[in-house]
Amino acid sequence: MNQNTKPGRPANKQDNVExxxxxxxxxxxxxxxxxxxxxxxxxxxxxxLTLLGLYYGIPWxxxxxxxxxxxxxxxxxxxxxxxxxxxxxxxxxxxxxxIAAIAxxxxxxxxxxxxxxxxxxxxxxxxxxxxxxxxxxxxxxxQMKLDKAALTQNKFYKKSLKHFAWxxxxxxxxxxxxxxxxxxxxxxxxMVTLELGAWEAFWIIFYGLATYGNAGWLRExxxxxxxxxxxxxxxxxxxxxxxxxxxxxxxxxxxxxxxSADPAKxxxxxxxxxxxxxxxxxxxxxxxxxxxxxxxxxxxCIDACNEVMEKVGYEKGLVRYTTEKTMEGGETKILRPRxxxxxxxxxxxxxxxxxxxxxxxxxxxxxxxxxNNLYREVPGGLIENVYNLRIINMSTTSQxxxxxxxxxxxxxxxxxxxxxxxxSGEVFSLNIQLRLDPAVLKxxxxxxxxxxxxxNGDKSSIKxxxxxxxxxxx
Length: 474
Description:
Elements: H1 39-57, E1 62-63, E2 66-67, E3 69-72, E4 77-80, E5 83-85, H2 90-111, H3 114-118, H4 121-137, H5 140-148, H6 153-179, H7 184-192, H8 198-218, H9 220-226, H10 229-232, E6 243-246, H11 248-251, H12 263-266, H13 276-280, H14 300-312, E7 319-322, H15 324-327, H16 337-359, E8 363-369, E9 376-378, E10 382-393, E11 399-406, E12 412-414, E13 420-422, E14 427-436, E15 445-454, E16 461-469
Antiparallel strand pairs: 1-2, 3-4, 4-5, 6-7, 8-10, 9-10, 10-14, 11-13, 11-15, 12-14, 15-16
Helix pairs in contact: 1-4, 2-16, 4-6, 4-8, 6-8
């Protein structure tokens, strides 16, 4: 009984009125992408197989008795085939990220969301999961029928088998991911003998479950709701950018008809309204409504439409890669200022990165002057400056170094350790003194040079400058 009513009095009609409830979130509807065949489907399949092959295959490659690609965090060594990088080389990684960002801008300005449709990890692994799903549950129509059916032994078997295959594939994905940080042979042996470390087990499970959740359950929701790229792509394209578009003038009015019918007599366009372009879309949009941020540029709708056009005897390209300017009757300019600028910057930074890696030194020398005293006098009337040197051996083998100094006449280097050894990856500290007759000095601050030569191994050499401070005798 409503609290506002009294016994013996009929309740007011408004007392039992339910308040209006409006949901701010649309209920998720599962998307069942239709399998299509065509040139873009073949390109996508080739891209998926190539990228997955590289991801799963590279950790098993060997290079000079070690894993070809290994990010050895405990040893602070990052091996990429014949190159070994150290934390001091993080600058190269930062430049690589800049190159990736500019490349994304370049290809987006050129042909829209090529990255999303053909190379994004979410797309690649989702395609793999969809292939597994089709092999077990059947075609799009069979999957929809199976989901609507009551729970039977056959349905339980297929669903269980599908999720088992997904989890197995995801677990192998997580295992491979950890294999980039722990040598594969060691990781495999530890897994077989159940001696995995806590962090290794955590990342295998975490990365595996992330793959299972993103590619198996979230799928298009990652692209539509979670990925920020979909939100700012419109700022990266222009009227000359290649995008997937539906030819409204040619296709509308839409309507079904017999294959032998003349659409002109029926007052119809070429679109037979079969909706196969919608069924093929992995994000469930209708490309005929225009370009939408949910479109990932996979071109599945193009393959689906071309297949239908071929069957009914119409010209292909009702849905195609084109530009806004072309659709309006203008002439598209591929080489425009934006493209030229992106390409120039991309090429310049790439060349600089490769040149820097080729010419990078295998030893780093940092020089710090003693700040307690600018200089001091020592017996014999000489002026002395004290320095702390930090030597980092970034080669893969132990090195023996010799230190020398130059830049001022009569400069004497006092190095109590003489020639010294530095292990691979070791940070070696060395305290040295420079002494000089003050009569040589013409100014209070003078430039000097320290040279470090490797006496064995890669015979590397590095030269750094410093300042020698002293009085000026007039």
